[in-house]
Amino acid sequence: MQEAGNAPHNSTAAIATENLTRRFGDLVAVQDVNLRVSPGQFFGFLGPNGAGKSTTIKMLTGLLAPTSGRIEILGLDFERQVVDVKRQIGVVPEGLALFGRLTGAEYLTFVGRMYGLDRDTCARRATELLEFMQLADQPHKLVTDYSHGMQKKLALAAAVIHGPKILFLDEPFEGVDAIAAGTLKSMLQRMIARGATIFLTSHVLEIVERLCSHVAIIHRGQLVAQGSLEELRAGVEAQSAAQAEALPSTGKLTLEEIFLHTVGGTRSAEQELSWLG
């Protein structure tokens, strides 16, 4: 298990941060985070509520300026080359912020044009994306009338219309039904197969374990672990052995068990609600 401050720097990372920090007055939301995500990784970014996940992803995507520290995306310094960076990334934020008075096709065309695509390319890709996302059957329907799952799929379509090399996803499966989730997962796996990098935050650990090859865990604003799932699993097992702590005997540790062990999320019997015993 690789500690936060020991990220290697022997090759160009897709995403790299150095002592990334964000303060809100006296509150330190993110402190000295050193992340490293290699090209082509499906990377999960985990943490309890209020741990600093959304603040971190907002800094990585230019929605929030760091108080201190550095961010590099594909070897580009974010602060000095922000336009070049944003051309290379796609973002599905937690708050989708779609333009509700447009149709799906109009919205995708608008986003594509903002990324500098010509009209013919925008039209072709918008048509393909709407078909793939199963959003093409009601071409005159306004985005504001879409269901939540439909809006999630449209947001993902908009995030990939320009062919980004890195895709940032903040809770992409929240409020999405099984059919829509399957469509989203299919697209994400296709992107990974073609060499893209995906940075995912989610509270659904089963999805993260199924999709992601590497994971980082943030707790109280600090990065407490990062590495492959096998590295994190081995780190927890070694730590537990050193402390003579019993681990579940059901075989290989799940990501949920790794996460709870890392952030101290287990409860004792004395902490349970008395009237539910």
Structure summarized in a few sentences:
This protein has helices at residues 53-60, 82-88, 104-114, 119-132, 148-160, 178-193, 205-211, 229-242, 255-263, and strands at residues 15-24, 27-33, 36-37, 42-46, 68-73, 76-77, 89-92, 166-170, 197-201, 214-219, 222-228. By secondary structure, it is α/β, with parallel strands linked by helices. The protein has one domain (4-265): P-loop containing nucleotide triphosphate hydrolases (Rossmann fold), CATH 3.40.50.
Structural write-up:
The chain is an alpha/beta fold. The chain has a single domain, classed as 3-Layer(aba) Sandwich (Rossmann fold). Helix content is 36%, strand content 21%. The protein is built from nine helices and eleven strands. It has a six-stranded mixed β-sheet, sandwiched between helices. A hairpin with a 2-residue loop joins strand 5 (68-73) and strand 6. Helix 3 (104-114) crosses helix 4, helix 3 (104-114) packs parallel to helix 5 (148-160) and helix 5 runs parallel beside helix 6 (178-193). The longest helix has 16 residues, at 178-193.
Label this structure with key terms.
about 280 residues; alpha/beta; Rossmann fold; six-stranded mixed beta sheet; 9 helices; globular
CATH homology-level superfamily: P-loop containing nucleotide triphosphate hydrolases
Total helical elements: 9
Strand content: 15-25%
Rounded Rg: 20 Å
Q: Would you tell me the overall average pLDDT?
A: 89
Q: Report the CATH C-level class.
A: Alpha Beta
